[in-house]
Design a protein that fits this description.
There is one protein chain. The chain is mainly alpha-helical. It contains seven helices and three strands, in the order H-E-H-H-E-E-H-H-H-H. It is elongated, with a radius of gyration of 50 Å. The relative contact order is 0.05.
């Protein structure tokens, strides 16, 4: 309740468990009836009259009632409210250092640790995968080379390695040689067919 006894609707007032009520003033008959209704909603305390105490509360005083362990509201008490000890505004560097030193975690998180982030870990894995793929491709190119056995033996004895460019050039030479051989076979086949047709034709014409 803020200013008037009937600021909070009755349906809400009856459902409140923990309640803190500051002073209320009742100047009209309607306000007095509402004040008595608010006082009667508390669990009475035999040491004082609740309705009278509400009107007599001073600065920093309140009537309080809180739920107990079993959910039963406690008797109303006249309580002196302690003012907040918080500070509005930024603290100084000296105050901040004092708070840090008083912390039970002081000394454990003083130094910043630059740990590997998820992005860095994934990037490193991607680089390793790319390097392994390049090495596998190089091995496949060497395996496709018909002179792998010869060059492998020379590498074993001389210790030299054939570069990727030389492997590619040998591969291109092999393809060119195969193309020339195929073309020669095709030409020879066509020429042979023409000769056979000519011989057969002359024989039949002679008959």
């Amino acid at each position: 309740i803020t200013q008037r006894p009937d600021d909070v609707p009755e349906d809400v007032l009856t459902q409140l468990g923990n309640r803190v009520q500051h002073a209320l003033r009742a100047y009209t008959a309607r306000d007095q009836r509402a004040l008595r209704a608010a006082a009667e909603s508390y669990r009475p305390n035999p040491r004082f009259d609740t309705a009278t105490a509400i009107r007599e509360l001073g600065v920093g005083e309140a009537l309080t009632s809180f739920l107990q362990k079993k959910g039963v509201p406690s008797v109303v008490e006249r309580t002196l409210i302690r003012p907040p000890a918080s500070q509005l505004g930024p603290i100084t560097e000296a105050e901040r250092a004092e708070v840090i030193r008083a912390s039970p975690l002081y000394g454990r998180y003083d130094k910043a640790v630059d740990r590997d982030s998820a992005y860095e870990i994934l990037a490193r894995r991607a680089e390793e995968a790319a390097r392994e793929a390049a090495e596998a491709e190089a091995r496949e190119e060497e395996a496709d080379d018909p002179l792998t056995g010869f060059w492998g033996a020379s590498r074993r004895y001389s210790g030299s390695r054939v570069s990727r460019s030389s492997s590619r050039s040998r591969r291109s030479d092999t393809v060119a040689e195969a193309f020339v051989k195929s073309l020669a076979r095709s030409v020879a086949t066509r020429a042979g067919s023409a000769i056979v047709r000519g011989i057969l034709g002359s024989l039949f014409r002679g008959r």
